[in-house]
Amino acid sequence: MFPRVLFVLDGTGPTGIDNRISALHAGAKFAHIDFLRGVPMLAAPLNDLLRSGPSAPIWRPVTDPGQQVSWTDSLRG
Q: Which residues contact 64 (CB under 8 A, 6 or more apart)?
């Protein structure tokens, strides 16, 4: 398995964060599905990262942005 790709989002409010994650999700639909299985891509707002820490379940999978997971959850497949 390849390393995770973690997007840390900043410079906008909650609506802007949601819009950026939606854009990542839309772009992921065009990516090769085997690539997405092998490379977990997660996004989190910088404020959540600073408040809760990188191991907290603040990360939203680009392929399923309605979920929130810890970055280590992506290791479990």
A: none
| DSSP symbol at 47 | H
Q: How far apart are CA 61 and CA 77, in angstroms?
A: 12
Whether residue 63 contacts residue 24, with contact meaning beta carbons closer than 8 Å, is answered with no
Q: How many residues are there in the chain?
A: 77
Could you tell me which residues are beta bridge partners of residue 64?
none
Nearest to 43 by CA among 77, 9, 3: 9
pLDDT tens for 38-72 read 778 899 999 999 999 999 999 999 888 899 999 88
